[in-house]
Design a protein that fits this description.
The protein has a 6-stranded parallel sheet. By secondary structure, the chain is an alpha/beta fold. The chain is built from 12 helices and 6 strands.
Length: 232
Amino acid sequence: MCGRVCREHDVPLLVGTGSNDTAGTRRAVEELSENTYVAGVLVVVPYYTRPSEAGVVAHFEYIAEASPLPLVLYNVPYRTGQHLGWQSIVRLAQHPRVVAVKQAVGSVDTDTARLFAESDESFSVLAGEDTLISPLLAMGAAGAIAATANVCTPEYVELFRLWRDGSTTQARLLGNDLVAPACALMSEPNPTVIKAVLHAQGRIATPHVRLPLLPAGEPTAIIETLRHLRTR
């Protein structure tokens, strides 16, 4: 269904995949490439086994060699326990099928600044930390992959437009306004709160999540926060 809707609206579908099993990840990417709806794959840094950084680079290079689809690296060290530095990302960006990185390192740090400074313009850095989307767009991010954009879609579209058009004062104000809603929507394990809010708004059929996640609490206060955002 997701693929069909993306095709109807002429929007590329990026599918998340990957594990700490390099061969298994390669097989998953190859299988996804057979789906005509899929335009690219978001592949997470291998977790748990904690290979060396050189091993992480080799992991991605092995997958990229076999993939007919563009690869977006997913750099999220607080979930994987594995750091992927700017030098490694720049090296991987030299591969023709590695086209972007979702940078979700939990801060606007020197490593991210070096990544912007050293990467080629043909390689996209995408904001991956919902509370930091505006600062990363200001630094030159090509866009974002954001869970909270499922709820605040018009606001994030406007935020991107403002930064793109150089309306920095308005962009900064809207970016600041989006911090509290983003924190609220991430106040319990993702995506439990987002699903609860979308269900309360009548936009999805159920708020249910699978174990080990548990359903979020009552989202009334969060919906009020969103309502306040839209009346500013």
